[in-house]
Each structure stands twice: as structure tokens, then as C-alpha cells.
Amino acid sequence: MAKNILIAYISEVSGHRSAAEAVSKALKLLDPSCNVLGINLFHYTNPHSEKVINKLYNSIIKLMPRIWEYLYDNPKVVARTRKAKDIIHKFNSKKIKKLFDKFQPDVIACTQAFPCGMFADYKKMYNLDVPLIGVMTDFLPHAYWVYDNIDYYTVASDEARRKFIALGISPEKIKLTGIPIDPIFSVQRNKGKIASELGIDLSLPVVLVMGGGQGLGPIKTIIRKLDKMDTGLQVIVVTGTNEKLYKSLRRKRREKNILVLRYVNNIFDLMSISSVVISKPGGLTMSEALAKKIIPIIISPIPGQEENNTNFLLMNNAAFKAKGTAHICSIIGDLFANHEKYTQIQHNIELIARPNAALDVARLILKNV
User: What is the pTM of this model?
Assistant: First the structure.
């Protein structure tokens, strides 16, 4: 009989959703008969407050990032908010029960701590033994993931494993898989065909500029700086859902070597023909870059998860952190002038890249069905 697998995330445009979709795709590759339901649990349980919370989060990140730094992975905050979370989880339990009654999941995987905590408390409330797996989408975890009855955690690094153990998680529960990205990132693409379709000359270096799904960061300033570099660069900039940024760059673009795109579904193709990616250090984006062996130049990491991702990559000499937009040009100029340095960083990237992470997570899920 076909097995039912529930994969929960939050936010429609996010790395959490992308990771959930990557695991879902991997599950179907390994077992086409399984039934996979991906669900934005925050929207499902709290549709009216979801937009308000998302706006509040974005405002804090943009205007008061140090407040987020205080809230993120703070044991005191975790302890103080536990009662509030209990109340919220109890309030949402009726909707969760409807979901369980309708879909009857054989195993649950969560790519974000909020749904994982909700399901963990639901299991305890109803004394259920449905396997629950927490799937990390950053290189280091935080304390909000810690619940007694989560059966397994998948992590991206030995550092993450050690931190979970320090937080009291049994080592047997922690599986080193990597951050799940679309399995297509491990497939060799036809670079010539991709370049031809985009009007890109592969004899020249290609720099990919991204600001995540929402097109965040000082992208306009970066493009202006790159436009002035005398190195024969070609630039692809992905503006995500930021329509204002897209229109501004399209209107002000002067050079033919800058290709401006909206939200795209073929980042794997763009990364296949790129040498460097300039981006905020989201766990999914960085994992995709590592899988394609392109060198990340990190910009504007937010406190908390993105700073942790940055520190992990810098510790492994697998990325650069730009001190400002002018520094980006200095890093790029040095990289393209120093082939030995470029190939050494690519080697460092290979040591920590895990392009098959989604398949490994999917195997763990199927093993527990």
C-alpha cells in the first residue's frame, strides 16, 4: 500500500519551501508510489495572521536587525516563549487533527522549526508514534528545534551535529545529510545550450547576482560597481519577486553584458554557467552554489542564521564575505587574476558540498515509513 508522507514548511517564497519541494521530488524519484503532501503549516493553521507575522519579520530584519539577533537562538527567549508556544500549539491542535484525519501521514518531515514544534507537541498531546524528522536548511541549528519527541534531525555539517549534541540531542538522532536542494543540481547541464539561449559568451567570466527569492540586499549598488569594472565581466542579476528592483535595473541598465531577470525556476542553469555568485547567505542558495562549485561572495548577512552560514563557509575557506560593495570588485578582480587561488577555493567547496542531500533525506524518510 502506498505510504503517506507529510512535508511541512512556512512561507511561500522561502528556502524552507524550496527544501520541502526538493525532498518531495527526491521521494518521488526513489518511490513513485508514495503520496507526498507539502503544506505551508503557518498558512494552514493561521491564515489571517500569516501576512502580519511575515511583514513584522521583514520589518525587523530590515530596520532592527539587532533585535532579531537577540531573539535568534537565545536560550532565555526560548524558555520564556515556551508557555506561549504551548498555548498556540494547543489552539491549533484541532486543525492539525483534521489534517491528520484526512491525510493520515505515515511519517512527517519539517523544514522549519515552527511546524516541527507544532507536530512534536501534537504527538505528545495525542500519544502518537508517527515518525517526525526535522530537516535543517541552514548550516547550524538553533535551540527552537529542540523537542523530546522529534525522532531524527538531518544536518549539514559536523559543527551542526556537535551543537545539537550540546543542546541535549542524542547523537543517534542526528544524521549528516546536507541541506536538501533540488536533485537537478547534481546533474551536468549543457552549458553551451544554456549560454546560447541567454546570449552569454562562455569565453568571458559570468557573475551571478542574487538577493534571495525576495530580491533583498544592495543589488542596485552592486550592479553599478560591476558595470564600471574593466574586466570583461558578464553579469546575470536575479531580482526575485522584487518587481520594483527589476523595473529599476531594466530601466537604468546601460551595458549589454548585464542580463536582468525576475524570479526564475532555473537557478541550476544560471549557476551552471557562472563562476561566482554574489548573494545573501541563505542555506539553500549557498548549498546550491557549493553543488555547482561556484564561489560565493556573501553580502549583507542578517544576524542569526545568515551570520552562522557565513561563519561556517569562511571557516572552511569556501566563500568570501564582502565588507562593502567596493570590496566585491576587489574580490572578483583578485579571483579572476589568480587561477591557483580560484581552483583552491573550488577544491575547498568540493569538500563540504552535498549535492545529493535531498536524496539522502528522502532515504531516511522512506526508511521510517
Answer: 0.90
